[in-house]
Amino acid sequence: MELTAQQRAAIDSAGKVIVSASAGSGKTFVMIKKLVAAIESGVDLDGVLAVTFTKKAATQMKEKLRSAIISAMADADKERRAALKLQLSKIASADISTIHSFCARLLRTYFYAVGVDGTFDIISSDDAQAREYKERAIGAMFERYYETDDENFALLLSCYRRKRGDTYLKNAILSSYEQLRINADYTALLGVADGLYTEAGFGRVIADLKADADEKYARLASEVRRFASGFSHPRPEYAKILDEMIFTLENSVGRDVFAPQPSLCVTRKPADKTDAEKEAGEEFKKFRDGVNARYKAVRGDISDMQTEKERFFKSGEVAKAFCTVLREFDAEYTAIKRDENKLDYNDLEHLTLELLSDENVREEAAGKYSCVFVDEYQDVNPVQEEIISRIGGRNVFLVGDVKQAIYGFRGSRSLFFAEKYDRFEGGDGSALRLSNNFRSSDGVISFVNTLFGRIMTAESCGFDYSVGSEMVRGGGYPEGYGSARIHVFGKDDAEAGELDVYSVEGVSAAGHTREALAVVEIVRRELSSKHYDLKSGTMVDTQAGDICILTRKRNKSAAAIVKALEDAGYSVAGAQGAAITSRPEVKQIIDILSYLDNKQQDIPLATALLSPLGGLTCDELAAVRVYCKGAGRVAYRECCRRYIRFNDNETARKLRLFREKIERLRDLAEVFSAAEIIDAILKETYLEAEYAKGGGEKLKNVRRLAAEGEGISVAALLAKLKSGYEINAPSASGSDSIKIMTMHASKGLEFPVVIIADICATFRGRDSAELPLSDVYGFAPRCFDRENMLTSETVLRKLIKERSAREEMKNELNLFYVACTRAMCNLHVLAAEAPAYNPSDTASSYSGLFDISRFNPEDIEVVEFGRGEERTALIANPDKELYDRIKTRFARQYAAAESVNLPVKSSASAILKMGEDDAVYAHALYGGEGETGTERGIAYHRFLELCDFSVKDAAGIEDELKRFASAGLISDGQRELLDAASLADILAIPIFSELEGARLYREREFLCRLPANEILPTTATDGVLLQGAIDLLADTDVGCKIIDYKYSVKSAEQLKQTYSGQLALYKKAVALITGKPAESIRTVIVNIFRKEQINL
Predict the structure, then answer these.
(1) Are strands 538-541 and 572-574 parallel, antiparallel or unpaired?
(2) CA-CA-CA-CA torsion for 469, 473, 476, 479, nearest 10 degrees?
(3) What is the rounded distance in angstroms from the CA atom of residue 202 to the CA atom of residue 206?
(4) Degrees, nearest 5: CA angle 274-279-283
(5) pLDDT of residue 432
(6) Looking at residue 766, what DSSP letter applies?
(7) How many beta carbons lie within 10 A of that of residue 886, not counting itself?
(8) What are the tens digits of pLDDT across the range 121-178?
(9) Count of other CB atoms within 10 angstroms of residue 607
(10) I need a labelling partner for 859 at 20 to 30 A (CA). Which of 188, 458, 606, 898 fits?
(11) How confident is the model at residue 858 (pLDDT cuts 50, 70, 90)?
């Protein structure tokens, strides 16, 4: 293979070098070439350190180096051949390994310098042994805390106790500890809280929050300007609105984060008349609403400065206590590992870092290596980066691709790569690029460049893809060869029953998702085609093993795709690394083993009975249960015993035979290993033959389970699985199986055909971290008001969570890039609906990354499923002219369209959500951000449903509470939460003194019909049913009072803003129902928490 100019420059480079290598650019090939060149120039392999991040990659690097040296020997003279032969003999023992293997070797050499035993064993931090040590550590620590009434522990327990238990707190400590240890000096990070929660610390947080806000406002202003430059509409109001938006955003830069936000624009969107105006108006509305939502999110729920400062300081008490407890856990866990002579992978890294802090050791260790090579440098975490920096000398060769940094969840920081690239480019070394892609066809390269050139920008990723990162064709494929298409397959029908009217090439669609059927059709089409083979330089038939389906997660969608493919007769292989314990065939065997181990379990018994070992049907299983009906609550195993005793039918015969088989297997399990028992189960039934069907993937999985049971008992294997131990699937081999794997698992692989599953599926979930962690600010707990059972967000949590969200978005962009660049010839991207471009860092699915306007119409295909009769699904390029005519015809407006689209019935909350310019309405009476806990709010609300409003003194209220509790009208838990003195203050609110003589209706539900144009954004006058529930309605001859209870820490102004719309609708309903004029009806909010009346 002829080297490109970029490859030659990388191989010939000297000193400190960093190479940014795009996907498919041959970075490993270049690294091997450089290694061989170094060896040929006289470098001894004993003086080379080459680090990569998986054992498989290290093994492959050694094999490739061996092949490269052998090839070099063929053309060498006698003296040079002898030198190369000597280096060839050193490959097996060469320091070409993972970072952890390197750390382990170094620690075994200098074990005395860090106080460990050099014979230590290595454990993973998430395996059964490590989990056991952590449980021992935290158990001992908690026991000590309970005995000594530890102050920090008491504080944390009061905040994180759930259902009177400490499990939630334990889990918070364990998960936070794993997050913490990816930082180089994690002990110092635990000390950050001690100096952070001061006036100066609060100022630092606010300054960072303001800097982030200014950046967001400036970015939004830029987006609006870019949109305005390309948007055309005949109505002048649109240009005015865009100018207002730009003005507001530009003037928001520099605004105090506590200052209220002005409206993004005050000019309302005009009513469009013609079809062209409406189409442009819809485009504008979608853009404006998206910008407005992001604009409001910049400030979010930040309160006034004094409130936020109080919350910040209060959360600091919890942060300090939590860090103290984490320090003690670290010491406890470390002591247990030392006693057991075990080190986990984090220990290897941190102890190596400690070792290299000794200048004598560092010089000796670094002096051994004349050259240091690091592959996949973008995946290093902070500790690994520090180790590499300390061991690297004058000749360092770092290779990676910041666009393929996908392990942020493991602590990797692509920031190190970007910063070092800039530093080397600035003169501290050499910064080079490899841009030629030798893996992918022109069609795939063009698609990837078009897609990521728009979304990988300096704002979203810290670099601009279109400047220096675009892939260049490698030249291996015929010019213009290959394709990449987006397939829109449509959402599944609401009623599953409709799915049985179509099929895909003879595969019944019943029970299959549209996505799965689309995959089957694409697979069928690819298998009937050829693809270009780079090795032979010819077109060859596409085999099943040439196709790979990539999913974001292992989920139901992936399982549905596998099922559809298997039903179509295709063999499907999962990627190595996927856990098999959730596979049906493996679960079946595990349940049988569970019943063998403990016959007092009904669920494993039922599974075993339904398996070929029992041979019963679901109807027979039900018949056995029905037989014991009326005999009280009888265990299913007892039902089986009785059925056998008193019946002599076919079902009873099966049960007797099953019992005999089980007892025989149970006897064998006393003396034989779990692996041998699994083998006996397969032989006792026809499961082995059943599992061997369809390529034998199921049988391989069961054999993989059996391999884990070698030499251990059934009970030991089950205990191992119960501890959370995961068994990886055997790697797929051969060309007889279609591959399906996660995007993460596909890293480093390539396939002629790649199908990416539904890009509309959400990849971003709700942030689940109880204590977000920043490498600058440490942990950020919530603010806990323990007296009022109130939790609040803080400005620090907002800062950390928003920055984490941006990092998450970078990782998702990178992951999607990795997925797309696995394709060699053809790439297929599936979408449930046409992608809706969302350029912000709030995108929750890959479909938001697609700007559909940048792709040619022929790149977008529609999967059509026939209706009314069985017919083959088609994926075809549309006739553009016909497509436009059909689109115009179907876009024609129906004269009564607004009436047709009206809801028959709605509620106040649903109606307010429809408001075009309203904030998102959230009718949550209790709980939620900035509001009180649910239980206390419900208790107070319940009292107001029952109480006598004329009883206002604490003693009288106390008597009422006792009466309510004894009558069972309030629960014991609610009774504990209700305070008579507080209730007396609430009933002293003026509105409750105005109820005398009024007819009171509590918790009164209503249903009435109102004209649509009075309650909805429509011109239609049809009636719409409105339903709701009024907390308290006081009716008199002269008017009514609508009283709505809230239990919230929000200010009166905030509650007015949130609930005035809801109460306005209630007012209309009451006016209609009672016949009273609207002006005689008052609406009032009673905020129970603040004990205040809010008149609307």
Answers:
(1) unpaired
(2) 160
(3) 6
(4) 145
(5) 94
(6) -
(7) 12
(8) 998 887 778 888 999 999 999 999 999 999 999 999 999 987 668 889 999 999 999 8
(9) 20
(10) 458
(11) confident
Q: In this structure, what token pair is assigned to residue 965?
A: 């509790």
Residue 422 CB partners (closer than 8 Å, separation 6+): 431
Model confidence over 693-704: pLDDT tens digits?
666 778 888 888
Q: What is the pLDDT of residue 1041?
A: 94
pLDDT at 766 over 50: no
160: which 2 tokens? Answer: 């994180």
Report how far residue 56's alpha carbon sits from residue 368's, in angstroms, rounded to the nearest whole number: 25
Contacts of 85 (CB under 8 A, 6+ apart): 73
Please give the model's pTM, rounded to 2 decimal places. 0.70
At residue 808, φ and ψ (nearest 5 deg) are: -65, -40
Measured CA to CA, the distance from residue 944 to residue 1002 in angstroms comes to: 9
Provide the Cα torsion 351, 352, 353, 359; round to 10°: 110
Other CB atoms within a 10 A radius of the CB of residue 458 amount to 10
Tokens of 502: 């179509």
Inter-residue contact 1083 to 1042 (CB < 8 Å) = yes
- What pLDDT shows up at residue 731? 52
pLDDT in tens, 7-40: 999 999 999 999 999 999 998 899 999 999 999 8
pLDDT (tens digit per residue) in 62-82: 999 999 999 989 888 888 899
| Three-state secondary structure of 497-519 | HHHHHCEECCEECCCCCHHHHHH
CA distances from 1095 to 501, 990, 1063, 1078, 1084 (A): 58, 11, 11, 15, 5
SS3 of 872, please?
strand
pLDDT score of 496 more than 80: no
Q: 1014: Cβ–Cβ under 8 A, 6 or more apart, which residues?
A: 1068
- Name 940's Cβ contacts closer than 8 Å, sequence gap at least 6: 977, 978, 983, 986, 1045, 1047, 1088
Q: What are the tokens at 83?
A: 């030198």
Residue 668: what residue type?
L
* Rounded distance between C-alpha atoms, residue 204 and residue 777, angstroms: 10
**What is the DSSP secondary structure assignment for residue 544, as one 8-state letter?**
G
The whole-number pLDDT of residue 765 equals 52
> Angle formed by the axes of helices 584-597 and 602-610, to 10°?
120
Strands 751-756 and 823-831, bridge-based pairing: parallel
Residue type, 260: P
What single-letter amino acid sits at 165? G
Q: Which amino acid is at 874?
A: L
Q: Is the pLDDT of residue 779 over 90?
A: yes
Per-residue buried b or exposed e for 49-69, using 16+ beta carbons within 10 Å of the residue's own CB: bbbbbeeebbeebbebbeebb
586-615 confidence digits (pLDDT tens):
888 998 999 998 888 888 898 889 888 888
**3-state secondary structure (DSSP) of residue 328:** helix
How would residue 792 be classed by pLDDT, with cut points 50, 70 and 90?
very high
CB 690 within 8 A of CB 588: no
Task: Decide the pairing of beta strands 95-98 and 48-52.
Answer: parallel
**Is there a contact between 58 and 96 (Cβ–Cβ < 8 Å)?**
yes
Q: Model confidence over 924-949: pLDDT tens digits?
A: 333 333 334 567 888 888 899 899 99
Alpha-carbon distance of 779 to 796, in angstroms, equals 9
Residue by residue, DSSP assigns 185-245 as THHHHHTHHHHHSSHHHHHHHHHHHHHHHHHHHHHHHHHHHHHHHH---S-HHHHHHHHHH
- Could you tell me which residues come within 8 angstroms of residue 1013 by beta carbon, excluding any fewer than 6 positions away? 1019, 1020, 1021
- Where do the DSSP E strands lie in 110-179? 121-123
Structure tokens at 460: 């979203």
Please give the Cα distance from 795 to 787 (Å, whole number): 22
Where do we find the tokens 């034998």? Answer: 696
Q: How many residues does the chain have?
A: 1096
* 273 three-class SS: coil
Tokens of 205: 């947080």
Which residue shows structure tokens 């699985």? Answer: 721
CA distances from 110 to 356, 365, 582 (A): 10, 10, 43
**Residue labelled with tokens 């009673």:** 1086
